[in-house]
Amino acid sequence: xxxxxxxxxxxxxxxxxxxxxxxxxxxxxxxxxxxxxxxxxxxxxxxxxxxxxxxxxxxxxxxxxxxxxxxxxxxxxxxxxxxxxxxxxxxxxxxxxxxxxxxxxxxxxxxxxxxxxxxxxxxxxxxxxxxxxxxxxxxxxxxxxxxxxxxxxxxxxxxxxxxxxxxxxxxxxxxxxxxxxxxxxxxxxxxxxxxxxxxxxxxxxxxxxxxxxxxxxxxxxxxxxxxxxxxxxxxxxxxxxxxxxxxxxxxxxxxxxxxxxxxxxxxxxxxxxxxxxxxxxxxxxxxxxx
Length: 290
Hints:
By secondary structure, the protein is α+β, with helices and mostly antiparallel strands.
Protein backbone atom coordinates (compact mmCIF):
# COMPACT_ATOMS: atom_id res chain seq x y z
CA UNK A 1 0.00 0.00 0.00
CA UNK A 2 1.35 3.46 -0.85
CA UNK A 3 2.11 6.05 1.81
CA UNK A 4 -0.78 8.14 0.49
CA UNK A 5 -3.16 5.21 0.85
CA UNK A 6 -1.95 4.54 4.39
CA UNK A 7 -2.42 8.19 5.37
CA UNK A 8 -5.94 8.13 3.92
CA UNK A 9 -6.76 4.98 5.92
CA UNK A 10 -5.40 6.52 9.14
CA UNK A 11 -7.43 9.70 8.67
CA UNK A 12 -10.58 7.70 7.92
CA UNK A 13 -10.06 5.53 10.98
CA UNK A 14 -9.60 8.62 13.19
CA UNK A 15 -12.66 10.35 11.78
CA UNK A 16 -14.81 7.24 12.21
CA UNK A 17 -14.02 6.91 15.90
CA UNK A 18 -17.09 7.74 17.99
CA UNK A 19 -17.00 11.14 19.64
CA UNK A 20 -17.55 11.75 23.33
CA UNK A 21 -15.48 8.82 24.61
CA UNK A 22 -14.33 9.88 28.12
CA UNK A 23 -10.71 9.89 29.20
CA UNK A 24 -10.75 7.26 31.92
CA UNK A 25 -8.12 8.86 34.16
CA UNK A 26 -10.01 12.17 34.23
CA UNK A 27 -13.31 10.42 34.96
CA UNK A 28 -11.67 8.54 37.84
CA UNK A 29 -10.12 11.72 39.27
CA UNK A 30 -13.45 13.57 39.13
CA UNK A 31 -15.19 10.64 40.80
CA UNK A 32 -12.65 10.60 43.64
CA UNK A 33 -12.96 14.36 44.04
CA UNK A 34 -16.73 13.97 44.37
CA UNK A 35 -16.30 11.15 46.91
CA UNK A 36 -14.00 13.30 49.07
CA UNK A 37 -16.27 16.33 48.76
CA UNK A 38 -19.31 14.26 49.73
CA UNK A 39 -17.57 12.69 52.73
CA UNK A 40 -15.96 15.89 53.98
CA UNK A 41 -13.03 13.86 55.33
CA UNK A 42 -12.15 10.31 54.33
CA UNK A 43 -9.25 7.84 54.47
CA UNK A 44 -7.49 6.45 51.42
CA UNK A 45 -8.78 2.92 51.96
CA UNK A 46 -12.39 4.12 51.89
CA UNK A 47 -11.68 6.25 48.81
CA UNK A 48 -10.45 3.13 47.01
CA UNK A 49 -13.48 1.10 48.12
CA UNK A 50 -16.04 3.72 47.12
CA UNK A 51 -14.39 4.44 43.77
CA UNK A 52 -13.99 0.74 42.94
CA UNK A 53 -10.33 1.29 42.07
CA UNK A 54 -7.28 -0.69 43.17
CA UNK A 55 -5.56 0.92 46.14
CA UNK A 56 -2.41 1.93 44.16
CA UNK A 57 -4.52 3.62 41.45
CA UNK A 58 -6.60 5.51 44.01
CA UNK A 59 -3.40 6.51 45.82
CA UNK A 60 -1.85 7.99 42.66
CA UNK A 61 -4.99 10.00 41.86
CA UNK A 62 -5.24 11.29 45.44
CA UNK A 63 -1.56 12.32 45.37
CA UNK A 64 -2.21 14.17 42.10
CA UNK A 65 -5.20 16.01 43.57
CA UNK A 66 -3.08 16.98 46.57
CA UNK A 67 -0.33 18.23 44.25
CA UNK A 68 -2.87 20.33 42.32
CA UNK A 69 -4.22 21.81 45.56
CA UNK A 70 -7.74 20.40 45.16
CA UNK A 71 -7.56 18.33 48.35
CA UNK A 72 -5.35 18.24 51.43
CA UNK A 73 -4.26 15.65 53.98
CA UNK A 74 -5.19 16.24 57.61
CA UNK A 75 -2.17 16.91 59.80
CA UNK A 76 -3.00 14.48 62.60
CA UNK A 77 -4.23 11.49 60.57
CA UNK A 78 -4.17 9.99 57.09
CA UNK A 79 -7.50 11.49 56.03
CA UNK A 80 -8.13 13.69 53.03
CA UNK A 81 -10.53 16.61 52.73
CA UNK A 82 -11.40 19.29 50.15
CA UNK A 83 -8.91 22.16 50.02
CA UNK A 84 -9.91 25.82 49.55
CA UNK A 85 -8.70 25.72 45.92
CA UNK A 86 -11.50 23.30 45.01
CA UNK A 87 -13.89 26.26 45.16
CA UNK A 88 -12.21 27.62 42.01
CA UNK A 89 -13.99 24.87 40.05
CA UNK A 90 -17.33 26.58 40.68
CA UNK A 91 -16.36 30.20 40.00
CA UNK A 92 -17.97 30.17 36.57
CA UNK A 93 -21.24 28.71 37.82
CA UNK A 94 -23.54 31.60 38.71
CA UNK A 95 -27.10 30.26 38.63
CA UNK A 96 -27.43 30.16 42.43
CA UNK A 97 -25.01 32.96 43.28
CA UNK A 98 -27.80 35.46 43.89
CA UNK A 99 -29.71 33.05 46.12
CA UNK A 100 -26.63 32.35 48.26
CA UNK A 101 -25.64 36.03 48.42
CA UNK A 102 -29.13 37.17 49.40
CA UNK A 103 -29.77 34.36 51.88
CA UNK A 104 -26.42 34.39 53.70
CA UNK A 105 -27.11 37.15 56.27
CA UNK A 106 -30.51 35.65 57.07
CA UNK A 107 -29.27 32.10 57.66
CA UNK A 108 -26.47 33.47 59.84
CA UNK A 109 -29.06 35.37 61.89
CA UNK A 110 -31.21 32.24 62.17
CA UNK A 111 -28.30 30.17 63.48
CA UNK A 112 -27.52 32.87 66.03
CA UNK A 113 -31.15 32.70 67.14
CA UNK A 114 -31.75 28.94 67.32
CA UNK A 115 -28.20 27.60 67.63
CA UNK A 116 -28.58 24.91 64.94
CA UNK A 117 -26.88 24.91 61.51
CA UNK A 118 -28.91 26.26 58.59
CA UNK A 119 -28.41 25.39 54.91
CA UNK A 120 -29.41 26.69 51.49
CA UNK A 121 -30.07 23.79 49.13
CA UNK A 122 -31.05 23.59 45.44
CA UNK A 123 -31.94 20.79 43.04
CA UNK A 124 -29.85 19.25 40.28
CA UNK A 125 -31.46 16.21 38.66
CA UNK A 126 -32.44 13.69 41.33
CA UNK A 127 -30.17 15.24 43.97
CA UNK A 128 -30.46 18.16 46.37
CA UNK A 129 -27.15 20.05 46.43
CA UNK A 130 -25.84 22.08 49.36
CA UNK A 131 -25.05 25.64 48.25
CA UNK A 132 -24.25 27.32 51.56
CA UNK A 133 -24.50 26.55 55.27
CA UNK A 134 -23.69 27.85 58.75
CA UNK A 135 -22.20 24.63 60.12
CA UNK A 136 -18.96 26.51 60.87
CA UNK A 137 -20.87 28.92 63.14
CA UNK A 138 -22.08 26.34 65.67
CA UNK A 139 -20.88 23.38 67.67
CA UNK A 140 -24.31 21.73 67.36
CA UNK A 141 -23.34 19.56 64.42
CA UNK A 142 -21.83 16.09 64.05
CA UNK A 143 -19.92 16.97 60.87
CA UNK A 144 -18.88 19.92 58.72
CA UNK A 145 -20.72 20.04 55.40
CA UNK A 146 -19.35 21.82 52.35
CA UNK A 147 -20.99 23.25 49.21
CA UNK A 148 -21.52 20.43 46.74
CA UNK A 149 -22.67 17.86 49.29
CA UNK A 150 -25.67 16.01 47.85
CA UNK A 151 -28.69 14.11 49.14
CA UNK A 152 -31.16 11.97 47.15
CA UNK A 153 -34.18 14.15 46.48
CA UNK A 154 -36.85 11.64 47.55
CA UNK A 155 -35.37 10.87 50.97
CA UNK A 156 -34.62 14.25 52.55
CA UNK A 157 -36.65 17.18 53.87
CA UNK A 158 -34.95 19.49 51.37
CA UNK A 159 -36.16 17.39 48.45
CA UNK A 160 -39.70 16.98 49.76
CA UNK A 161 -40.08 20.73 50.38
CA UNK A 162 -38.71 21.53 46.92
CA UNK A 163 -40.84 18.97 45.06
CA UNK A 164 -44.03 19.94 46.89
CA UNK A 165 -43.54 23.55 45.76
CA UNK A 166 -43.38 22.63 42.06
CA UNK A 167 -46.34 22.90 39.67
CA UNK A 168 -48.13 19.57 39.40
CA UNK A 169 -47.11 18.95 35.77
CA UNK A 170 -43.40 19.45 36.54
CA UNK A 171 -43.68 17.26 39.61
CA UNK A 172 -45.18 14.40 37.61
CA UNK A 173 -42.36 14.55 35.05
CA UNK A 174 -39.78 14.38 37.85
CA UNK A 175 -41.64 11.48 39.51
CA UNK A 176 -41.50 9.51 36.26
CA UNK A 177 -37.81 10.20 35.74
CA UNK A 178 -36.92 9.22 39.30
CA UNK A 179 -38.18 5.70 38.67
CA UNK A 180 -39.10 3.28 41.48
CA UNK A 181 -38.21 4.35 44.99
CA UNK A 182 -37.34 1.80 47.63
CA UNK A 183 -37.93 2.41 51.35
CA UNK A 184 -34.76 2.48 53.43
CA UNK A 185 -34.72 -0.44 55.92
CA UNK A 186 -35.42 0.86 59.40
CA UNK A 187 -36.22 4.37 58.17
CA UNK A 188 -39.38 5.50 60.01
CA UNK A 189 -40.11 8.12 57.33
CA UNK A 190 -40.51 5.74 54.41
CA UNK A 191 -43.79 4.30 53.21
CA UNK A 192 -44.22 2.33 49.98
CA UNK A 193 -43.20 5.48 48.11
CA UNK A 194 -41.33 8.15 50.12
CA UNK A 195 -42.97 10.83 47.93
CA UNK A 196 -46.51 9.82 48.91
CA UNK A 197 -46.60 12.58 51.54
CA UNK A 198 -45.97 15.48 49.13
CA UNK A 199 -49.59 16.59 49.16
CA UNK A 200 -49.44 16.93 52.95
CA UNK A 201 -46.12 18.78 52.66
CA UNK A 202 -47.70 21.17 50.14
CA UNK A 203 -50.67 21.89 52.41
CA UNK A 204 -48.66 22.62 55.55
CA UNK A 205 -45.85 24.47 53.74
CA UNK A 206 -42.88 22.63 55.18
CA UNK A 207 -41.23 19.21 55.23
CA UNK A 208 -39.65 17.42 58.16
CA UNK A 209 -37.68 14.17 58.05
CA UNK A 210 -36.48 12.46 61.19
CA UNK A 211 -33.19 10.58 61.36
CA UNK A 212 -32.04 11.33 57.82
CA UNK A 213 -30.25 8.21 56.51
CA UNK A 214 -28.13 9.80 53.75
CA UNK A 215 -25.72 11.96 55.76
CA UNK A 216 -22.15 11.69 57.03
CA UNK A 217 -23.67 10.39 60.30
CA UNK A 218 -26.72 8.38 59.14
CA UNK A 219 -29.74 8.54 61.41
CA UNK A 220 -28.29 11.00 63.90
CA UNK A 221 -29.79 14.22 62.54
CA UNK A 222 -33.26 15.35 61.54
CA UNK A 223 -34.16 18.26 59.24
CA UNK A 224 -37.00 20.71 58.75
CA UNK A 225 -37.24 22.60 55.43
CA UNK A 226 -39.27 25.32 53.70
CA UNK A 227 -39.13 26.39 50.03
CA UNK A 228 -37.73 29.67 48.73
CA UNK A 229 -39.23 31.51 45.77
CA UNK A 230 -37.86 33.81 43.09
CA UNK A 231 -40.11 35.34 40.41
CA UNK A 232 -42.96 33.11 41.50
CA UNK A 233 -41.03 29.86 41.13
CA UNK A 234 -39.32 27.70 43.71
CA UNK A 235 -35.61 28.53 43.68
CA UNK A 236 -34.32 26.44 46.54
CA UNK A 237 -34.86 25.42 50.14
CA UNK A 238 -33.75 26.67 53.54
CA UNK A 239 -33.22 23.91 56.10
CA UNK A 240 -32.45 23.61 59.80
CA UNK A 241 -30.63 20.43 60.86
CA UNK A 242 -30.86 19.27 64.48
CA UNK A 243 -29.92 16.30 66.62
CA UNK A 244 -32.56 13.58 66.38
CA UNK A 245 -31.92 12.62 70.00
CA UNK A 246 -32.53 16.19 71.18
CA UNK A 247 -35.74 17.24 69.43
CA UNK A 248 -38.58 15.05 68.23
CA UNK A 249 -40.86 16.13 65.39
CA UNK A 250 -43.43 17.96 67.51
CA UNK A 251 -40.83 19.88 69.54
CA UNK A 252 -38.95 20.80 66.37
CA UNK A 253 -42.11 22.20 64.82
CA UNK A 254 -42.89 24.13 67.98
CA UNK A 255 -39.46 25.69 68.49
CA UNK A 256 -37.88 25.82 65.03
CA UNK A 257 -40.69 26.27 62.52
CA UNK A 258 -41.71 29.86 63.50
CA UNK A 259 -38.19 31.36 63.15
CA UNK A 260 -37.60 29.25 60.03
CA UNK A 261 -40.74 30.60 58.38
CA UNK A 262 -39.75 34.15 59.31
CA UNK A 263 -36.37 33.58 57.65
CA UNK A 264 -38.18 32.18 54.62
CA UNK A 265 -40.33 35.33 54.44
CA UNK A 266 -37.31 37.64 54.67
CA UNK A 267 -35.32 35.77 52.02
CA UNK A 268 -38.32 35.63 49.66
CA UNK A 269 -38.84 39.35 50.17
CA UNK A 270 -35.17 40.07 49.41
CA UNK A 271 -35.22 37.84 46.32
CA UNK A 272 -38.22 39.76 45.01
CA UNK A 273 -36.35 43.04 45.39
CA UNK A 274 -38.41 44.32 48.31
CA UNK A 275 -37.06 46.27 51.26
CA UNK A 276 -36.07 44.03 54.15
CA UNK A 277 -35.97 44.87 57.83
CA UNK A 278 -32.58 45.24 59.50
CA UNK A 279 -31.35 41.99 61.01
CA UNK A 280 -30.62 42.25 64.70
CA UNK A 281 -27.71 40.32 66.12
CA UNK A 282 -28.72 38.21 69.09
CA UNK A 283 -26.95 35.84 71.42
CA UNK A 284 -27.67 32.21 70.56
CA UNK A 285 -30.87 30.77 71.98
CA UNK A 286 -30.05 27.10 71.82
CA UNK A 287 -33.04 24.85 71.22
CA UNK A 288 -31.62 22.06 73.32
CA UNK A 289 -33.69 20.16 75.84
CA UNK A 290 -32.47 17.85 78.55
